[in-house]
Design a protein that fits this description.
The protein has about 850 residues and is mostly helical. It contains 42 helices and 5 strands.
Length: about 850
């Protein structure tokens, strides 16, 4: 009877425990929601209560320690962890948290000891940690031990997800692993699945923001806002928002966000690291050092502090300082992967290629799956096949075939830029400057950013390294490669003069300004879209212009940031002189922050912003001053075909409509006869209907009110097309010449003018149009053929020879004929080369009589 009674009460106790579990689980879920919402003190109190009751579940201790870490109570977290360890010493998840606990208490050796203890336990009792509930922490541990990530995915994380596809823990670790390897596509997929199961966890939305940060600013921002809506005190999200402000040079706003972080956790290392960055960028070097020391107080050998500092310095093109910070991080942890990857990239950007590739290979030997490292290693194989062209102060690397076609022109242009701009800005450069030109846009992106993408970039300068897209990657409407390289070399001069301490708006503004100073068709002129944006809500104060480059609303807004920056530079020069601009660069190079340097130049930032706004508005009003710009029916007039413009930008306001109501348009134009938008829409409508006489009448009026529209599909382009259809050859030629002289990339216009002037035998003009064509697209045969013909007639055999040699590289239909022409052109100056080309002619066409005769003549003499 006594045994039965004992068994009975045992069963009662057992079932009581079983029945109590749902209640405990529900309590834990509610407490975890407090953690998600940022109610850390309340959450910690609930967890402490359960721990004090000695509830037999390590999840309470784990959540308690996480709360204490989140609010910077590192010593309390250590006490809670070690107390919990007495009861749950075999809990992998708790031990993994313990690594962070010891690190934040400056006990790095004890942190490593936790890893060793776990590893030893798994080796002794592998069956204990092979269950499905242990797969994820086991995978995390294996990753910290440097095990192959692919095997960890397959044996741990994927296995856990096969058992439960909605396993949030497995999905989160998979996301973090993908982010660590720069596999943003996989990261976004994994975290999206995790959010479906656990939508209240702000950490998941933060990870989603990171996953989108390199490819989609809009989605990244939305995810970050979602995280902060769930938890306004979520430290990683607040830090990301602060860093975005740092990138935009909005340091006051960044400081406010960092204050919010420190209100949650006054010891957060990355908050103090960001404060150190801001102090450095503002030239407050004593404060910089103090903030860095504070960041390292919880853990003296924390490599994340200097790695974060280096990453942000690199974003601001402070590559030399970034390299120093990366090296500091690696002295703390020699195989810190993020520091190795960043150091390799910045060394390559500084032109220190030999050391950069060595660091990259060392990084890859420790991490075979990092996407950036893999991409760069593959790209190195392509770079090894490039041809190097060297001259004073320059090393240009190009694809071998392209180097033969227009490599000499690249060298000539860059040498001229070097002479002109270094003298103009009194700059002493660290040389050589390296220029790499990529025929494949994705190769350019990988070399520049480490990842595919970057479609909006034509070239990038890092100070001593320029990377650029070649005309081969420009599609049907490539940009003027000469203006691109001039722009980027100007960056070399100004970045080095200012020691890379200039804000982005000033750097870009000077480069665009210098494009137009060198060639009036280069750079970015005022147009109807920029006019509307300057007079609308898109004008950014001069003192905040760098923010316009960060997360622009559209491609048009990014281009507008370049345009407005160049307008600001022109304003500064006109208002205060060019010498004042160069002094401004000197002040920046000496360490003076930009706003302080501007105040020193102008006296008042607020007054400067007001003056610039007035200047910009005046410039906008000077475009089409006789035009009526009123929109129709309180909307922007929709213009058919407006998607194409000088910079291949997306359509502006109203450009989404593809058709115009003819009757509505006619009525509006009757009451607004000088309305540029209505005239343009009407002209396009008449051209589409092939009513060329009516179109000509409208275009003539449009030319009067918008005479500076030299866009690809602008008034002059339409007028020339109209005259051609009406067979008014002289008017077509006159209009087309005016258009082609002002437009930087009018390939069709130049080709048409080459044809017309060839018929007229105006060979000097043919040369001019063909050379303009080559400045945009040197990889087509037509302009080279035109130069051969014109230069031969004019007796300019050197020019003819250059284009003939280029034609040989462009897959000609009749290479024998080209070799023969080369032989004739080279005969007076280089008989030996001429004979070699003759022999190549006869090798391809043994019965070519004219070649045989010429060979006979040359042999006799």
């Amino acid at each position: 009877m006594h045994l039965l009674r004992k068994l009975f009460w045992s069963i009662v106790v057992l079932w009581s425990a079983v029945l109590a579990r749902p209640s405990t689980a529900a309590d834990y879920a509610e407490t975890e929601r407090m953690f998600f919402a940022g109610q850390y003190d309340q959450c910690a109190a609930e967890c402490q209560s359960e721990v004090d009751r000695r509830t037999w579940n390590p999840q309470w201790t784990r959540l308690l320690v996480r709360c204490q870490l989140a609010i910077g109570k590192y010593s309390e977290a250590l006490a809670s962890y070690e107390t919990g360890l007495e009861r749950f010493s075999d809990d992998l998840r708790l031990r993994l948290i313990g690594v962070q606990v010891y690190q934040r208490n400056n006990r790095g050796l004890d942190a490593k000891k936790q890893l060793a203890i776990m590893t030893e336990a798994i080796q002794k009792m592998p069956w204990r940690y092979s269950g499905r509930d242990e797969l994820v922490p086991l995978g995390q541990l294996l990753l910290t031990q440097g095990e192959d990530p692919r095997q960890v995915l397959e044996l741990c994380l994927d296995k856990a997800l096969k058992t439960n596809p909605a396993n949030v823990e497995a999905l989160q670790v998979s996301t973090e692993l993908a982010l660590d390897k720069s596999d943003f596509q996989e990261a976004s997929r994994s975290v999206a699945a995790a959010i479906k199961t656990q939508p209240l966890d702000p950490q998941l939305h933060y990870l989603q923001a990171l996953a989108w940060s390199e490819t989609d600013d809009e989605q990244s921002t939305a995810a970050l806002l979602a995280a902060l809506k769930l938890n306004p005190r979520h430290v990683p999200s607040l830090l990301m928002a602060a860093e975005n402000k740092v990138d935009a040079e909005q340091y006051d706003e960044a400081e406010m966000l960092l204050q919010e972080v420190l209100a949650v956790n006054p010891h957060e290392p990355l908050a103090w690291a960001n404060r150190s960055i801001i102090a450095h960028l503002q030239g407050r070097y004593e404060a910089e050092g103090e903030c860095r020391r504070t960041a390292l107080e919880p853990w003296k050998l924390n490599p994340a502090v200097d790695t974060k500092i280096a990453e942000k310095l690199s974003r601001h093109y402070r590559f030399e300082e970034a390299v120093e910070a990366y090296r500091r991080a690696l002295t703390m942890e020699p195989l810190h992967q993020a520091a190795m990857a960043g150091l390799a990239q910045d060394l390559l950007r500084l032109g220190k290629t030999e050391e950069g590739w060595k660091v990259l290979e060392a990084f890859r030997s420790n991490d075979q799956y990092n996407v950036v490292a893999f991409n760069l290693s593959k790209l190195r194989d392509q770079l090894d096949k490039f041809t190097s062209l060297e001259t004073d102060g320059l090393v240009v690397r190009m694809e071998a075939r392209e180097a033969k076609i227009y490599g000499d022109a690249v060298i000539d242009l860059l040498s001229r830029a070097r002479r002109t701009l270094t003298e103009k800005y009194a700059a002493k450069l660290e040389e050589p400057v390296y220029v790499e030109i990529f025929p494949n846009q994705q190769d350019f992106a990988i070399r520049t950013f480490g990842l595919p993408g970057g479609e909006g970039y034509l070239g990038v300068c890092f100070g001593r390294l320029i990377t650029a897209n070649s005309p081969a990657s420009g599609g049907e409407q490539p940009q003027n490669w000469q203006s691109v390289l001039w722009h980027e070399y100007c960056h070399v001069v100004t970045l080095q003069k200012s020691k890379n301490r200039m804000p982005r708006w000033l750097s870009e503004g000077i480069s665009v300004y210098e494009e137009r100073e060198e060639n009036g068709t280069w750079g970015q002129p005022m147009d109807r879209q920029y006019r509307a944006m300057l007079l609308g809500d898109d004008l950014t104060p001069l003192s905040e212009l760098s923010s316009a480059f960060l997360r622009p609303k559209s491609g048009l807004h990014l281009q507008f940031a370049y345009f407005e920056s160049s307008l600001a530079v022109r304003f500064l020069i006109q208002q205060y002189s060019f010498a004042s601009l160069t002094r401004l660069l000197d002040d920046l190079g000496a360490g003076l922050p930009i706003n302080a340097a501007l105040e020193r130049l102008t006296g008042s930032l607020s007054a400067l912003d007001e003056q610039f706004e007035a200047y910009a508005i005046a410039q906008a009003n000077a475009y089409g001053p006789d035009a009526d710009w009123q929109p129709m029916a309180d909307e922007e007039i929709a213009i058919a075909g407006e998607a194409t413009n000088p910079r291949s930008r997306p359509a502006g306001p109203g450009g989404g409509r593809n058709a115009v109501d003819p009757e509505e348009l006619q009525n509006f134009l009757a009451s607004h006869p000088n309305n540029a938008l209505a005239l343009r829409a009407t002209a396009k409508l008449q051209l589409a209907r092939r009513n060329y006489d009516d179109a000509l009448q409208v275009l003539t009026e449009l030319q009067k009110v918008e005479p500076d529209d030299y866009s690809i599909d602008g008034v002059y382009s339409m007028l020339a097309a109209c005259y051609r259809k009406l067979e008014r050859g002289d008017d077509e030629y006159k209009t087309l010449s005016q258009f082609a002289t002002h437009c930087p990339n009018s390939l069709d216009a130049w080709q048409r003018l080459i044809e017309l002037d060839t018929e007229k035998k105006e060979w000097a003009k043919v040369l001019d149009w063909a050379n303009r064509y080559l400045a945009v697209q040197p990889l087509r045969s037509a302009p080279h053929a035109a130069i051969v013909q014109a230069a031969t007639v004019l007796g300019e055999l050197e020019k003819a020879t250059e284009s003939l040699q280029s034609l040989l590289e462009l897959d000609p239909l009749d290479p024998a004929e080209l070799h023969f022409q080369l032989a004739k052109a080279l005969r007076p100056s280089n008989p030996k080369s001429a004979k070699r080309h003759l022999l190549q002619t006869l090798e391809l066409a043994p019965r070519y009589l004219a070649a045989l005769r010429l060979l006979h003549e040359m042999t006799e003499h």
